[in-house]
Amino acid sequence: MDPKGIRKAIEEFWFTRGNQKGKLADGGAAGGEARANGHMKTLENLVKQAFLDCGIPEHCIHTGRPYLPGYYRVRKQWDLVVIYKGALVAAFEFKSQVGSVGKNFGNRFEEALGSATDLDAAQKKNGSFGDVPPWLGYVFVLQETDETETEGRATSALFPTDSAFEGLSYNQRYQEMLRRFIGEGVYHGGWFVTTQRNDDGSVTYGEPLATATGRTLQVAIEGRVKLVKAMLGD
Question: What is the pTM of this model?
Fold first, then answer.
């Protein structure tokens, strides 16, 4: 994933959000652009291309919210699913946070953890995906604002909390969330992008988490595809 391709994808992300907000019946007053769909499609296409570049046929890549079985619930929609010769190569979630980060941080964390935990249980309890263990990816885009960059509030609870979270901004908390997801194998590949849409209409972006850049995700995808093909005897 080259920087030019990523920049174009982020610019299209902002364009699509703004365009779809205007098409909502209320102009986006109740929930804004987040109620519109499709703004993550640009990044989804980059991830899809990474699998195509590894020799995965296009018909093996399922988008449009395909379902996979769960354990605690019967099924769950994912954003991108790759199935090659009957093996689940990968399942991806694509999420973004633009504004209202304080209200939605907890929800984003719980969604991500719940989806991965449910699919993992489906494999361990029911063997839903056969002999090739599932491989999960998580892509997240965060708008940088004063709210996301301000030092976090107190992290006290009824019992001692992890001191690593003390003083972290929401941006840093999202990074720590994804760092731990990848480190603990909750998700196996990740991509964390921060971005701003400036007053002059220009768009900037960053990839502040070294373990979750477009490049590291691409390398992880290449390794996963090679492993699955080797296990299948390709």
Answer: 0.89
